[in-house]
Amino acid sequence: MDKTSKRIERTDVPKLEFETLLSQLIDRAHEVMDTQARLRDLISASNTIVSELDLSIVLTRIAEVARRLLRAEYAAMGVTAKDGHLEQFIHVGMAEDIVAKIDHLPEGKGLLGALMQDPRPVRLRRLAEDQRSSGFPAEHPPMESFLGVPIRVRDEVFGNLYMTNQENGEFSADDEAIAEALAASAGIAIANARLFEESRFRERWSTALAETNRHMLANEEENALQILIERMLELAGADVACVLLALPDRNQLVVDRAVGQGAGELEDMTFPLEGSVVERVISEGEARIVDQTLGYPADGFLERTMMGEVILVPFDLKAGQRGILAVARCPERVGFRDRDLEMTSTFADQVTLAVQRTDFRADKQRVDILEDRSRIARDLHDHVIQRLFGAGLSLQAVASGLGPGEPSRRIMEQIAGIDETIAQIRESIFALKSDSRNPTGGLRTRLREVIERVADQLPVAPKVRFLGPVDLMSDREITDDAAAVVTEALSNIIRHANAHTVTVTVTAAAGELSIEVIDDGSGFGEKPIRSGLANLLDRATQRGGTFTVQDAKPRGTHLTWSIPV
Questions:
Q1: Cα torsion at 203, 197, 344, 271 (round to 10°)?
Q2: Residue 495: how many other CB atoms lie within 10 Å
Q3: What is the DSSP code string of 190-228?
Q4: What is the largest CA-CA distance in the chain?
Q5: Helix axis angle, 338-379 relative to 221-235, nearest 10°?
């Protein structure tokens, strides 16, 4: 080798070293530029995420941004429920047809479950090599590299961010740092979205509560309860809402009304009250969220509703009756939050107040009516009857002065008419007073209804007289017996008597209630008491009373039914 070739070899060595260093410097510069670009993308993505206030959109964008920034094939956002299980799983990157073939989404088991229990970053070169991995369901695409980081909202772990299949084969330490920075921004975005959603949630409930109160004050209780469950179904985002009423005399629950999924099948259903979760809610007087899938396997109501989580809220109706407002979601849906329980309870409390105000208003109206009736009855007794009585006495004195003859007879007929009018006014006075004690109308109303039903089958409507406080001296069972007596008597007259006039007189006096039915038909004769009349005899005998049927004079039938009261 000559001198020239040796000189060339010595000069090549520094040149090769320089090129190597230069190449390394260029690669490092590319890495720095790439890192700067990714940081710019991270800042831009963070701004995009934080600017969004809709929580569902925020969660989806977090997964999309993570997939793009970390150059992953798949990314997902898992939301942890209050009891620690996976409540939501928002994924991106997987085709819809592939998702449709997979049996079910992740449930928080295996590696995902481990991350939920121990929220720290996890970076794996091969997912299958980790002992915590539980494999994938059928039709699930293969996944190799894995990166998972927790997302915290203040001091609470909201969920985890997952990325798989990095385009360069595995995730680097820089990828992990970017993922953690993104998770921090995601936590801020989620906190902002939650605050916004919370304000909208409470505003929506407050507006609905005010509107419902207005509607309920303008409606009767029946409509008020319907308005209640319709608004609850909408506001709570429930699948079914219903009102259950406790029937203590039968130790049962009955679904008074329902709206939503399967409402038609639920209405009027009855369930055993004893031992049920509803009984506990009623006895404790506190609302609660019940998850049917986690307990109460023998509870009839929960089994029949076929729902997942159910909010049960006790509330009071009039006359001390207890009710339960129940709103439920299907098992596959996200469960209720504490705020749903709080607002549902507040709503039910306000509805209870509205029902009580409605009852108070109705009671006041009844008091006003009763006061008017008492005043009318007093005026009739103190003025009208006294004036008629005075007119009758005056006419009686005139008739006495005239002596026997046609004028005297006609005056006495008018006096009899005045007496009849006084009797009718007294009957009206008793009716006014008794209605205040018996809002359903009592014996008087019941017998008038019976007579009105058959009046068109008689030549002339029966003449009805009520003497004494008949409503005050009768209860429901006596009213049923009296209605049976009048019904049977009038039925016999229609079928057999061929009568032209019928008089029904009901008298309450001296501890006895008696019913007389007199017609001018063909009479009773010597017939034996049997069939329907025998039943009336039994009713009187059971109460220590009497029952007689005989011919009237000059013609017809005279039926008398009397019992002690």
A1: 140
A2: 9
A3: HHHHHHHHHHHHHHHHHHHHHHHHHHHHTS-HHHHHHHH
A4: 183
A5: 170
- Tokens for 420? 């009849």
Helix (H) / strand (E) element for 518: namely strand 512-519
Tokens 């038909």 — which residue?
Answer: 521
Alpha carbons 308 and 299: distance in angstroms, whole number: 13
Domain that holds residue 379: 352-437
**Residue 455 DSSP label:** G
558 phi and psi angles, rounded to 5 deg: -120, 110
Do the domain assignments include residue 14?
Answer: no
Q: Which of 39, 61, 38 is nearest to 50 (CA)?
A: 61
Q: Name every residue whose Cβ is closer than 8 Å to that of residue 81 and which is 6 or more positions away in sequence.
A: 87, 335
Tell which residue, 355, 366, 282, 274, has the closest CA to residue 319.
Answer: 355
What is the spatial distance between Cα 382 and Cα 82, in angstroms, rounded to a whole number?
A: 75
Per-residue confidence band for 298, with pLDDT thresholds at 50, 70 and 90: very low
The token pair that represents 299 in the structure block = 């509870």
- Whether 163 contacts 67, CB under 8 Å: yes
CATH number, position 309: 3.30.450.40
CA distance 74 to 166: 9
Show the beta-strand stretches assigned E in 218-349.
240-247, 252-260, 270-272, 288-291, 309-316, 322-328
User: Residue 241 in contact with residue 356, Cβ under 8 Å?
Assistant: no
Q: For 320, left (φ over 0), alpha (ψ -120 to 50), or beta?
A: left
Tell me how far apart the alpha carbons of residues 565 and 552 are, in angstroms, rounded to a whole number. 27
Give the C-alpha separation, 527 to 19, whole Å.
Answer: 138
Strands annotated E in 401-501: 463-467
Do 455 and 428 share a structural domain?
Answer: no
Question: Is residue 370 situated within a structural domain?
Answer: yes
Residue 66 lies in a domain: yes
- Angle of helix 476-492 relative to helix 531-542, nearest 10 degrees, comes to 150
Task: Identify whether the C-beta of residue 236 lies closer than 8 Å to the C-beta of residue 344.
Answer: yes
Give the global pTM.
Answer: 0.48
* Domain count across the chain: 4
Give the dihedral sign, CA 91/97/100/106: negative
Contact 278, 301 (CB under 8 A): yes
pLDDT digits (tens, 9 = 90+) for 248-287: 665 777 888 888 888 887 888 887 777 777 778 888 888 8
Backbone angles phi, psi at 274, to 5 degrees: -65, 130
Q: Over the stretch 7-38, which tens digit does the pLDDT of each residue have?
A: 445 455 555 665 666 566 665 655 555 655 56
426 CA to centre of own chain = 48
What does the alpha-carbon distance between residue 16 and residue 20 come to, in Å, rounded to a whole number?
6
Give the 3-state DSSP-derived string for 92-148, with helices as H, strands as E and coil as C.
ECCCHHHHHHCCCCCCCCHHHHHHHHCCCCEEECCHHHCCCCCCCCCCCCCCCCEEE
> What radius of gyration, in Å, describes the C-alpha atoms of the chain?
44
Which residue reads 């329980």 in tokens? 341
The C-alpha atoms of residue 420 and residue 418 are separated, in whole angstroms, by 5
